[in-house]
């Protein structure tokens, strides 16, 4: 059973298009996240949701819009894709927001914008 | 603001030897958690080990141990008896109390040779 699953695994699209990445976790966690990993492997937080409520939005362009229909799902919609959006996007979840709570990551979605 | 520094872009080790991956951190918050993740070439993020700021003993998980030196603000990962499958990118990360996420270092690429 996959704990955190995200689809699709690969996404190739042209500039200007709109695309979505879906994420689901079956761990019963309350908190979910989106991270972006750039070409140098640096991981940066984009959004964090706790019980469907947005709690962290790290200066991400408003072309990126997360949506959490319930606490098991956190989807990411990207409008008007740009070349610089090419990256690997990771969804993650944690049981709580405490310091001792590790994040469990999905396998990532490699987005390529041409 | 918290900061994680991994000064070794790459490390080489022979199979069956031990290796230490360095991590230093900077925070004024007395309560924090330190985490190590492994990212193999297949891309997934694997949680390895956790150390809390108030933990008196160094964390251990199988062949992984964390050399926690609080006064020096360092949390080095020690991998004993390296295996070929340990070849991967390793990330150190920190989490503060409250509604915070994981902040990652830039990573260290470990290559294990036969």
Textual characterization of the structure:
- The complex is a heterodimer of chains A (114) and B (114).
- With 114 residues, chain A is mainly beta.
- Chain A is 0% helix and 55% strand.
- Chain A has strands spanning 4-7, 10-13, 19-25, 31-37, 43-50, 53-57, 64-70, 73-78, 87-94, 104-105, 109-113.
- In chain A, strands 2, 4, 5, 6, 9, 10 and 11 form a 7-stranded mixed β-sheet that branches. A 4-stranded antiparallel β-sheet of chain A has the order 1-3-8-7, with no helix packed on it.
- In chain A, a hairpin with a 2-residue loop joins strand 5 and strand 6 (53-57).
- The relative contact order of chain A is 0.33.
- Chain B has 114 residues and is mainly β.
- Chain B is 0% helix and 53% strand.
- Chain B contains no helices and 12 strands.
- Chain B has strands at 3-5, 10-14, 19-21, 24-26, 32-39, 46-52, 60-61, 64-69, 74-79, 88-96, 103-104, 108-113.
- In chain B, the strands form 3 sheets. In chain B, strands 2, 5, 6, 10, 11 and 12 form a 6-stranded mixed β-sheet that branches. In chain B, strands 3-9-8-7 form a 4-stranded antiparallel β-sheet, with no helix packed on it.
- Chain B is globular.
- The model of chain B has no long low-confidence stretch (mean pLDDT 95).
- The interface between A and B is medium-sized, with 26 and 27 residues.
